[in-house]
Amino acid sequence: MHLGKSRLKKWIYASDLHGDMQRTDVVEELLKFCDLFKPDIKIFGGDLFDFRAIRRGASATERADSMALDVELGLQFLKDFKPQVFLRGNHDERLWDTAKYAGDGLVRDHAQEGVRMIENKCKIQKIKLLPYSVEKGVYKLGKLCFIHGFHAGVFATKRHAEVFADQGGAVIHGHTHSIQQQSIARLGGAGGYGVGCLCRLDMEYNRHFTGRLMHEHGWAYGFCNKDDYQVYQARKMGDKWHYAIKFNE
Asked: DSSP characters for 210-223?
């Protein structure tokens, strides 16, 4: 998207749906927010699907799971959210990796068919699809840099900012399922924002990790032009969602 120096563009970034692990009430609130905010560009930050059946180290129970509903609900979200950009996450990339590297020919063939179907859906919807890659999985909008995320833990946003934020800019990421904000020491300033997630917070795979106690639902939104930006983070306070801007409803 071309950005000028004067007119501000409105953007929204949401991440980590995890297909059939999504929280439908959070997704509904996100879509309602989009209708009110009317962003110029919508970016989906990855993990559209969960794909637990093909994760490395999947249990027998996970491997037995059908991925049909996972894929169906992920694709329905793309249809409803209508992003211009989709940054694949590490969960999504499981299918692309299986299509390339699976030792079982039948599994590889099915994965390749799934990849073609998803890529074709994105093409039809005119969605820019980027891989899960530290070089190629980066989308820039003025001073803002959008990624899925490659680090985890309490210092994840700091590490992302140190690697991806331009001078005077910021990186926006998902992946950690937590809402974070971090400034870093860089000439001209720089920082980062973790946006939270759209999925369940009680995933079975991380039930024994204390890090999941930081997980929250949310997304990021704001304004930017060529030289400047403003980032807000949507989060739920109690049983209500609160935003930094008011709408005439």
From this structure: GGGGGB-BEEEEEE
Provide the residue ranges of all domains of the chain, joining segments of one domain with +: 9-237
B/e letters for 11-20, b = 16+ CB within 10 Å, e = fewer, are: bbbbbbbbbb
Q: Rounded distance, CA 201 to CA 220, Å?
A: 18
Which CATH number applies to 9-237: 3.40.830.10, 3.20.20.70, 3.60.21.10, 1.10.1040.10?
Answer: 3.60.21.10
For residue 109, which of 99, 118, 117, 96 has the smallest C-alpha distance?
99
Phi, psi of 124 (to 5 degrees): -60, -40
Query: For the sheet containing 139-141, what is the strand order?
Result: 139-141, 144-146, 169-173, 190-195, 179-184
Per residue in 175-229, pLDDT (tens digit) is 999 999 999 999 999 999 999 999 999 988 788 888 888 999 999 999 999 999 9
